[in-house]
Specification:
By secondary structure, the protein is α+β, with helices and mostly antiparallel strands. The protein has a single domain, classed as Aminopeptidase, CATH 3.40.630. It contains four helices and five strands. It has a five-stranded mixed sheet with strand order 1-2-3-4-5, sandwiched between helices. The radius of gyration is 16 Å and the shape is globular. The mean pLDDT is about 95. InterPro entries: Acyl_CoA_acyltransferase, Bact_Acetyltransf, GNAT_dom. Pfam families: Acetyltransf_1. It comes from Henriciella mobilis.
Length: about 150
């Protein structure tokens, strides 16, 4: 098995759009506020071309099997550091889960973040998404802030 991590290109867009729908499908049970399909979370083409972001893909034996991005974001004005990397678009094909692919992808995104002098990395994950939470905790992430909501119905 040959694993290669590389920046995504616009040629990868059809597969990346499929990955995005895989993410939405996986997250839909955790968020009843998601609008009915079709929806999209990201402008992936714009992120591929952005200077303050890096979309990365993982190939296994020439097949795209995973994606993720790191984006430079300004932190809240009252927290340090002033800037951090935000990770998103994290997806691994079901057929390749449990093989360490997510860790390889995370390492590449963390390296990209370090190369930009960033000292903090953040991401969001739904509270009920236990497999993702375990994977991020295994990589060293800690719960930082819990966002809560209250729906006000008429």
């Amino acid at each position: 098995m040959t694993i290669k991590v590389r920046p995504a290109s616009l040629d990868d867009l059809p597969t990346l759009l499929d990955f995005e729908q895989g993410i939405i499908k996986a997250e839909r049970p955790h968020d009843h506020l998601l609008k009915p399909d079709p929806i999209s979370y990201y402008d992936i083409g714009e992120m591929i071309e952005a200077e303050d972001a890096e979309v990365m893909v993982v190939e296994v034996d020439g097949e795209l099997v995973a994606s993720g991005y790191a984006k430079v974001k300004r932190s809240r004005h009252y927290t340090s550091p002033d800037w951090h990397a935000f990770l998103g678009f994290m997806f691994v094909r079901e057929s390749h889960r449990g093989q360490g692919i997510n860790r390889v992808l995370l390492d590449a995104l963390l390296d990209w973040s370090r190369q930009r002098g960033l000292t903090e990395v953040r991401l969001t994950v739904y509270p009920g998404n236990e497999p993702a939470i375990r994977a991020y905790e295994k990589a060293g992430f800690e719960n930082y802030l819990t966002e809560m909501r209250l729906g006000l119905e008429d």
